[in-house]
Write a structure and sequence with these properties.
The protein has 137 residues and is α/β, with parallel strands linked by helices. 47% of the residues lie in helices and 21% in strands.
Length: 137
């Protein structure tokens, strides 16, 4: 499962059973930490999640931002509550790439705004899945 964690919403994507493709899940509108974690716990259990990939927002220079610290604090609490491994993934340009893709699909700015977090989570997860060494059977 991959998360694009923002202050107001969390984009969510889940991989298929073979860990080949990222699939969108509805964006979670944030309420409070406890409630957000509980909804993510249910989703993780329903989908038999074994690892969570969290987008790590960095400046283009690679330096951490204030948002990096917020995401890290959230991820720490999530890891404690779910007891699942967390992997951070560089998310630079994923929101831009998500916006571009949604624009190419012909969505107006309002519809793009509603879907950009989930699309960013899908990009994060797909990039992570694609980076894994090929498994030969």
């Amino acid at each position: 499962m991959a998360l694009d964690v923002g202050d107001k919403r969390i984009g969510i994507a889940i991989s298929d059973a073979l860990l080949l493709t990222a699939q969108a899940r509805p964006t979670l509108t944030r309420k409070d930490l406890k409630g957000d974690i509980e909804r993510l716990r249910r989703l993780a259990e329903e989908n038999e999640v074994h690892q969570i990939v969290i987008g790590r927002p960095l400046y283009m220079s690679g330096k951490e931002s204030a948002q990096t610290q917020k995401v890290t604090r959230f991820a720490t609490e999530l890891q404690k509550a779910l007891e699942l491994p967390i992997v951070y993934w560089d998310e630079r340009l994923t929101s831009f790439e998500a916006e571009q893709h949604l624009e190419e699909l012909g969505l107006n700015w309002r519809k793009r705004r509603r879907h950009v977090d989930t699309m960013a989570a899908m990009i994060i997860l797909q990039n992570f899945l694609d980076s894994r060494p090929a498994r030969t059977t």
